[in-house]
Every structure is written in structure tokens, then in C-alpha cells.
Amino acid sequence: MAPTADVILDTLDALDPLGELPRTGWLLRGINPCESIAAHSLQVALLVSMLVDACRAEGMIVDGEAALRMALVHDAPEARLGDVPMPVKSPELDAALHVVEERLAAELLPPALHGAWSAAEAGASLEARLVKAADKLQMLHKLSVYERQGRRHPLIDVMWQNPANLRFVDIAPVRRVYETIFARAGRPMPAPR
Amino acid sequence: MAPTADVILDTLDALDPLGELPRTGWLLRGINPCESIAAHSLQVALLVSMLVDACRAEGMIVDGEAALRMALVHDAPEARLGDVPMPVKSPELDAALHVVEERLAAELLPPALHGAWSAAEAGASLEARLVKAADKLQMLHKLSVYERQGRRHPLIDVMWQNPANLRFVDIAPVRRVYETIFARAGRPMPAPR
Amino acid sequence: MAPTADVILDTLDALDPLGELPRTGWLLRGINPCESIAAHSLQVALLVSMLVDACRAEGMIVDGEAALRMALVHDAPEARLGDVPMPVKSPELDAALHVVEERLAAELLPPALHGAWSAAEAGASLEARLVKAADKLQMLHKLSVYERQGRRHPLIDVMWQNPANLRFVDIAPVRRVYETIFARAGRPMPAPR
Amino acid sequence: MAPTADVILDTLDALDPLGELPRTGWLLRGINPCESIAAHSLQVALLVSMLVDACRAEGMIVDGEAALRMALVHDAPEARLGDVPMPVKSPELDAALHVVEERLAAELLPPALHGAWSAAEAGASLEARLVKAADKLQMLHKLSVYERQGRRHPLIDVMWQNPANLRFVDIAPVRRVYETIFARAGRPMPAPR
Amino acid sequence: MAPTADVILDTLDALDPLGELPRTGWLLRGINPCESIAAHSLQVALLVSMLVDACRAEGMIVDGEAALRMALVHDAPEARLGDVPMPVKSPELDAALHVVEERLAAELLPPALHGAWSAAEAGASLEARLVKAADKLQMLHKLSVYERQGRRHPLIDVMWQNPANLRFVDIAPVRRVYETIFARAGRPMPAPR
Amino acid sequence: MAPTADVILDTLDALDPLGELPRTGWLLRGINPCESIAAHSLQVALLVSMLVDACRAEGMIVDGEAALRMALVHDAPEARLGDVPMPVKSPELDAALHVVEERLAAELLPPALHGAWSAAEAGASLEARLVKAADKLQMLHKLSVYERQGRRHPLIDVMWQNPANLRFVDIAPVRRVYETIFARAGRPMPAPR
Fold first, then answer.
1. Nearest of C21, C41, C12, C17 to residue C110 by alpha carbon
2. Spatial separation of the C-alpha atoms in residues E113 and E101, rounded to whole Å
């Protein structure tokens, strides 16, 4: 079912705060102002488009439209919830957040985009795995951008060492981007969990 | 056990982000820049000091030091977690957040302040109830400040109408402050739940 | 030719400023802080994904992946150039900017995304027309968001009255979104040029 | 005399700017955005609560409620006056500022908090001395936080060397916190004046 | 004596904070972010250049270079002191601030610009009176700009009614600009003191 | 023809955005918040006043009022156009921007200031050459200020090495300021083109 003009505008209204909400993890590291959730999501989508091209060049079949839709909405529920930083999460909190996010995704998004969010969250398809990898790749790349600007913080080393930031390194183009980020930052890449 | 100089400085370090982290609910309503968690906590503590005076004038016995300590740290775990806006919370999310906050409070705070946080969270004592009331009174007062500045938003009416924002109105000085906030804003006060 | 990991990271570096650069037109209207170019681009892409669904529901054939790629990079050269507000542009300035943007797009983007930018700029395909329409639809929608927040400015009326902000209203789903934006804002829709 | 609801809300209104006003000394050192007066005051109050605990552990008698109230309002007049940076002050300016602050404290604060402000300003009691020490301890600690973030400025060395930033080092827990701040920052502690 | 290259750069360094420091009075009225001291000074200088032209057209003899130099440095000491809002000032505070500002002007500025600051502060010459008038005209004009943007605040009416904001209305072009500001804002002009 | 009160206020309105608009080149280098166009223009005018004194000390005849007016308005058209960063400009873009700026200068400025803008742009007189030199001197000095604050960026070296940033080094006081900026920054001065 196609979205009506009213649904389209309600969706834009609902997702509008993504441009104002900060990625909390940077504020916790003294980086203020910092990247918005919208700026993050745009970079994830750009990264996904390039990973799709790299995967196809190696003969993989990828649904590019599906992957890009997943990237665009992968943080959509944060428009109501804000960005909860990863390191504090417990399995129970993750589970409860997932339920709330599922409810918010259903409320905020029209069916087609809701489906894209759910598929990304499930992480089963190649497209979803590319989005989940890009979510972390973008974060580590942004960290390297901040470091090159001269920003320092005691919690920055932890980010480079956390194996939870490595995702789906079994996909060759993903692994190469991880390796290049770590090499350019002069940091050893942790062993994936 | 008294905090050593190292513990005191570790605590300041740990709570430092409260000054940078925004109260997410205002960003969601298009108010940017908005109040920090630190600015909120300071106002809650000031409000508690005045509620303590008002309660004592009516013959209640209040431990003022305990109440102020609770006010100062009532949002301490948000220094790691950020501010999760209330309307999205489910009972399960509330429970999981509580567990994470309890863990963070234990990590970030020395024993005496950790005890203050736990007592505030429990909400059993008169002091804790004053802090929980002040938490909401401050929010509604800040809303009235933003409204007087000409800020408008579709979600603002909902805040004035939500009975969950009324807490411990059975304490007479608390009730009078609620009534005066609503009267000054020209808004009807909802019936407490 | 697929982008290498180095090319992928160079592209992220090159487009990183989109998250910091403001949409200049809002600053000129006293809205500060305002939307970044990245936040705008994300909303354009979301809007395009919904317009694609609406077009397909009416039987049109749309290449969704191509449309989304165009949306993601339609303002990519602004990462070096900043956002030049439309009303000041002359035909000569438009032409000279186009040449510079073409050069920057070639420098900043890998071949596949450069192709997407050029196709969007050309505006010939249905996909490109959806992106150009979404570029203006997003701007008018954001204007309505700012107005609802209580922002006022002498130059705001001009934006609502400028027929240059209406693009490709011959595409039925596009026209319906325009009509709904104007109706919700309580503004008459100007006659398209 | 207990504050009425009207007085309580007038006080919150009056002190509301503390959350927006920057600590001017940081802006002068190129740190922008920087800590607000509210964020500073909250940290001073937290520090005082821990110093109170440390003093009690050494057998000193401290009125914790009084100390916390002093901390909360020690910069209250700055809500009207802004933060005037210390190094520029002359004895005459200090005296004239004190008179204006006394007038503002009387205008902005209800009697009980006005008394707390005056006692803090007088600096005679142990409680007041803890607040005055915490005011400087917080400043030096925040300086160390900014330094760890990679911020540099020609005027920063002066702050570490200024003996006027050492206050009431005769109180043992205060002295230990000073020593630890300097040790962690790798800076020699100046001789108190 | 002409300034050497070292003196010129020391002066730029010394006055650099004017671009970061806010005009405190706006923050106190909930306008955040607000005009910097540098933005204010630039507008005062532009206004002075136009008042000079208007005075000359009426046959007055004005030293335009002197007037512009006074405008550029009239707030120079605030680069160290910050902006102390007018309404809180007492005669004693004004006198003590003047002494400190005189010292800072001598420290921060080379002789020629120090002379310009002193002449502006003295307010004796026509040029100095134009600068002092422009200082207030700019403030009232900026207030009208903020009002047109939809900003509201209880303390705004007071600014329009304060006769201390009217300066040197005996100079005909100055008086006409005051009258036009009030007329455009739809406010009655108070009687000069 | 002298500007009327209406023209004076229209000019202030028109140039008001200079205080909000960022110097885009700094944002592209990760410096956020950064200097506004107004803060830049004020520093250029201050620098020009000191260069005028230095030139006069060497026997040159300079029209100080004319030079200061040129400095004040040299970026006036950017109030509508924003700041387009230099490195992206082509000869064609420069030419087209010049035409648009000429039109905007005529629209935004009264005749006397429009004349000052045109003379500055022409760059023929000594006064105009001082303004054009000061425009670049201020930029390099600000770069050194940001570097001393610990900011780092891959594109910073390029700025120090670009001979296009050296202007009118044949004027002795200008050359000495350039040499001192480079010497203080510990950078070799490039050979002028």
C-alpha cells in the first residue's frame, strides 16, 4: 500500500528530530558540538551504496534499493528515543529497547519503511548485514576524523579496542574497509569476537 | 567510609558529561540549544531546598542534607546513559533502565552518594518524594519558560495534560507549586492518576 | 569499477563536512542553529523512497536504487562549496556553479556515485525529477516545521509564494505532497511557472 | 518565613539564566561551547558533599545542609550579572561587584537562600570555606578535563601557576584534593599566598 | 608611534575573544545563541559610518576616521572582562569598571587605538557622541530584529521603556533613527531623561 | 546624498545575517563553532586601522576613513550569499560571483557604502590594497589562533603553503605582518606568485 501525502508528511515530521539529536557517545567524550543522528545515517547510507558496489564487483547479488532503505531508517526510532550509547547496554536493556523501538518503528514509519527497519534489525539478509557493518564502520571512521582534528579523550582507546565494533568482517569488502580504517588510524585491529 | 581525593576526582570526571548532555525531550520539541542535564539538576536541587523550607514551616520533619544530596545525584547515571525521554518508556524498558542505572550509580558514585541515589530512586521517604516531585515541577516550569519565549510545538499540549507529570501532590507545598505553575501558564491542571 | 577501501574512506572524508555545514537560507532568516546539509539530504532521501512507492502504486516504473543514490549525493559538491542560497543566483552564476560542482563531484565521488550526481543534475529521468521535486518539498516542509515552532521572519512569506519552489508538479504523487504541505500551512499554493 | 509557591517560582525564573550563561574564562581561552554557570554550580555542590564526608571522617563537625545550600547559590547573582572573570578584577571592582551582588542576592533569593549566599560570601564558617575551596577546585579540575581533551591555550599555564586559585589548603581534605589535581595534571602546585 | 608587526598581532590576539563572547543581555532574555560582541561592534561601526554621512549632509563637520576607530574599539576591554549587562550597574560599579576598562584598554591596544577608546569613553566630541548613540541604537534595532523573529520575553518591554537607552537625541540624524526604530517596532518612544 | 533613517535601518537589517553566518572554510576544517563573517570583518577593520598607522609612519598618504569603510563592507554581499570558500573557485565562478556581489552590494548598501565596496573590490587604491591584504592576514592569523588551541586538520598545511594568501607584500608594513605571522607559527612563508 502506497503512502498518501498525509502519511509522507507525517513521516517527515516524525523523523525531523534526527537532525537535532546528537550522537550521545561523542558528547560523553567531550566532543561538543558533535555529529547528529541524521549526519550519521546519511554517511551510513553512502557507505552502504559503496559496499553494495564492492560486493557486486565480487559477484555477490545485492538488492541495492533494499539496502539503502534499511540504511536510511536504521535509527528511525531514535527520533523519539534519542541515542542510547552502546557500552551501557545490558542484554535486558537491549531486549527492552528492541521492543520499544519495534513499537516506535511501527508508529513512525509507513509499512514499506517499517519493513526495511525490521529487516535491518533482524540482520539476516546480506543487505541487513551490510547496514549493520556500515553502522560501526561509520562510527570508527568518524572517530578517526575527530582524532585527526586533535580531539583527545581517555575513553577513545576503548573504542578502538572493542571487538563489538567489528561486525560481519566475513564479508570481504567490509573486512577491507575495517582494515583500512585501523591502518590509517595507526591502531591494531582487535580480534573479532 | 569517606571518599579519598582520588575517588572525589573520579566522581567529578564521571559526572562531567552532565554539563554537555541535553535534556532530550526539549530537542524533540524543536528547542535547540536546550537545557543540559546539569542545569536541570541544579534547578531541582534549588527547588528542593525551598520545598524543604516550606514543609518545615508546616511542621514536617525533613532531613535537608539528605534531600539535597538526592537532588544532586538523581540523574547521575545519565552521565553514561544520556537522557531517555519519558513518553517512550514501557514497563519493561523502565525496569531494564532501572537495573542499568543501578549498576551505573554504583560504578560512578562513592558509597554515600550512591546511597542518596538509591534512596531517591526508591521514593519511599519524604525527602525522596520531594525530589521526585521537584523533578517534574522543574520540567513543567521550564516548559512555561520556553512558552513565554515564544516557542511553540505540537507536542507541548500533551506535556501539560499528562497526569504522569503530577507527583506527590498530597504534599501540600508541592501541590501549591503545581497549582501556581498551571495557573501562571493559563492551563488547567489534569486530575492526578 | 568497484570502489576500493581507500576510495570508500576518501569519499567519507570528503563528504564529512555535510554534517557541519548549515543550510544557509535558514541562517539568513534568523534560524540558528539550523538544519545541516546532511540532515536535509537524509530527509530528501526518505522522501524519495516514499515518492517511489507512491509512483509505483500508480503503475509507474521507477528504479528505486538509482533514485536513492541520486538523493544521497545531490548536494555532495556542497561539502567543498557550502550551500549557496537560491534567490541570489543569476543564470551566469548558476552556470559557473554547475561547472564547479561538476568538477567537485568528479573529484569527491567514485564513478558510480558521480554518475548518480550527474543524472540527478541533468533532471531528465523520472528518478532525477523525483529527487529535484523532493529537494524543494523538503525545504517547504521544513519551513512549515520552523513556522509551527513559532519562528517568524519577513522573508518567510516570499518562500511560500515563489513558484520556483514548485517542481515537477505534473507527477501526481509529487503534486499531492505539495498540495498537502500548502494546505497544512494554511498558505495558497502559487501557480507553477 | 517559608517561601510561598509564588516566591519559589519567581526564584526559579530568576535563576533560570544560569543554565545559558557561559563561564566567561573558558571562552577567553578559545573553549566554545564551554561549561555553563549552572554546570559549574552543580559540580561545586557535588564536590562540597564529598568534602563534607571527608571532613566528618576526620572528626570535624560540618552542617552539611548549610554547606550544600551555600554551594547551590554561591553564583546566584551571576544570573543577572554574568560571569566576570577573576584576573581582571581590582580591589575596587571586587568591592563594587560585591555590593551589586549583595543587592542582587537580596532581590533574587528568598530569605533562607539569601542567608546562605551571604554566609558563603563572608567565608567565615567551615562550611563557607569548603564552598570557596570547591569553587576553585572545580575550576582547576575542569581545566584538567579540557586539557585532556586536547585543548591548548597560551593563558592555560597562568591558571595552573596562580596562587589565588589555592584556597583554604589548611583544611586537610581540601589540600589532598588540590594535590591530586596537580599531580594528575603533571603540574607543580604553586605555594599558597 | 606606529605599531610594529608584533604589536599589530598582539592586538589581534588580545581582541580575538570578541568574536566568541556573547552579548550577555540577550542570554538573560532566553536568546541563545545570540549576537557576539564582535557582531555588535561591526554593526555599531556601520551605523556610525551612515550617521557621519547624515550629519555631514546637514553641514556638521565630523572626523569620520576618528569616529570609526572609536566604534571599532568601544568595547575592546570586554575581550578580557566579558559583557556586563547595564541594568545591574550601580554608580560605584560603573566607576570601578571604568578604571578596570581603562587599564585593560591601555594593556590591549596600541597608543592610537587606546586614544580612540578613551575619547569614545569620554563622550565629549561629536564623534564620541555618535558612537555612544550608535551603541544604543544598535541594541534597540537588534531587539526589534529578535522580536520580528518571534522571540518573546518578560524583560523585553523594559528595554523599550528605559530612557537610559536614548542617547544624544539632540543630534538630529540620531533622533530620526531612534524615532524610526520605535515607529517600526510599534512602540512609543520614552521621554529622554 | 545622505542616508535617511529608513535607509540606515534597512542597511542594518540587510547586514544583520553577517553575525550568524560562519566562515565556511573553518567548518570544512572541522572547526565548529567557528568565526562569523562579522567577527572576521571587525578584525579586518581593526587590522586596517593599524596598517594605516604603520603606512603613515613611513610617509605614505592614506585616507583612513575610506580604508575603514572599505573594510567594514568588504564582505557585505555575503549577508545574502553566504561565504563561498576560495579554493573551489574557478575564473568563471569568480566572475559570476563578482556580478552577483555587485548587484547585491547595490541592493543592500546606501550609495556611500556601495562606493566603498566597489573601490575595495577594484583593489586599485592603496586603501583597497590594504583591505585586500588585511583580508588574508586576518585569515592566516586566525588559522594560527586555531592551531595554538590544538586544532588539527589535513587541509591546514595547504593554507600555509598557498601563495594566493599573500597579497600586496610590496607594501612594507603588510610584508612585515605576513613575515611575523609565519615566523610565530613556525612556518616558512611561500614565495608570492
1. C12
2. 14
**3-class secondary structure, B13:** helix
At position A37, the amino acid (one-letter code) is I
In this structure, is the dihedral angle defined by the CA atoms of residues A53, A72, B96 and A125, taken in order, positive or negative? negative
For residue F50, the one-letter residue type is M
Closest CA to E79 of D100, F42, F70, D101: F42
For F70-103, the pLDDT digits (tens) are 999 999 999 999 998 877 778 888 899 999 999 9
Per-residue model confidence as pLDDT tens digits over E103-126: 999 999 999 999 999 999 999 999
For chain F, the DSSP string reads -PPPHHHHHHHHHHHGGGGT-B-HHHHTTT--S--BHHHHHHHHHHHHHHHHHHHHHTT----HHHHHHHHHHTTTTHHHH----GGG--HHHHHHHHHHHHHHHHHHS-HHHHHHHHHHHHT-SHHHHHHHHHHHHHHHHHHHHHHHTT---TTHHHHHH-GGG---TTSHHHHHHHHHHHHHHT-PPPPP-
CB F156 within 8 A of CB F140: no
From the list B78, B77, B76, B71, the residue with the least C-alpha distance to B21 is: B78
Mean pLDDT of C73-99: 90
Q: Chains with 3 or more CB pairs closer than 8 angstroms to E?
A: B, C, D, F
Region C77-97: mean pLDDT is 88
Q: Could you give the 3-state DSSP secondary structure of residue B163? A: helix
Distance from C-alpha of C3 to C-alpha of A47, rounded to nearest angstrom:
11
User: Cβ separation of F95 and C90 shorter than 8 Å?
Assistant: no
Return the amino acid letter for A79.
A
Distance CA E2, CA E11 (A): 13
Ramachandran quadrant class, C114 (left: phi over 0; alpha: psi -120 to 50; beta: rest):
alpha
Q: Which chains border F (3 or more CB–CB pairs < 8 Å)?
A: A, C, D, E
DSSP helix/strand/coil, A22: strand
Per-residue pLDDT band at A157 (split at 50, 70, 90) = confident
List CB contacts of E183: < 8 A, sequence separation 6 or more. none
Spatial contact of F106 and F62, defined as CB atoms under 8 Å apart: no
The low-confidence residues of chain B, meaning pLDDT below 70, are none
Question: Is the model's pLDDT at C78 over the cut of 80?
Answer: yes
Q: CB-based contacts of C67: which residues, under 8 Å, 6+ apart?
A: C48, C49, C52, C127, C130, C131
Q: Which of D134, D12, D141 is nearest to B45 (CA)?
A: D12
Enumerate the residues of chain C whose CB falls inside 8 A of the CB of residue F80. Answer: 28, 85, 87-88
Which residue in the set D2, D45, D173 is minimally distant from B57, CB to CB?
D2
Q: Which amino acid is at C78?
A: E
Q: How many CB atoms lie within 10 A of CB C59?
A: 6
Q: Distances in Å between the alpha carbon of C4 and those of A176, A178, C38, C125?
A: 8, 12, 24, 29
Give the three-state DSSP class for C20.
coil
Q: Which residues of B touch C33 (CB under 8 A)?
A: 32-33
| Contact (CB<8Å) D88/E79 | no
ipTM of the complex: 0.97
Distance between CA atoms of A84 and B84, rounded to whole angstroms?
8
- Does residue C151 contact residue E150 with C-beta atoms inside 8 Å? yes
Neighbours of A124 (CB within 10 A): 10
Closest Cα in chain F to D149: F150
Angle B189-B192-B193 from CA coordinates, rounded to 5° = 140
Q: Do B and A make contact, counting contact as 3+ CB pairs within 8 angstroms?
A: yes
Cell numbers found for residue E68: 570609526
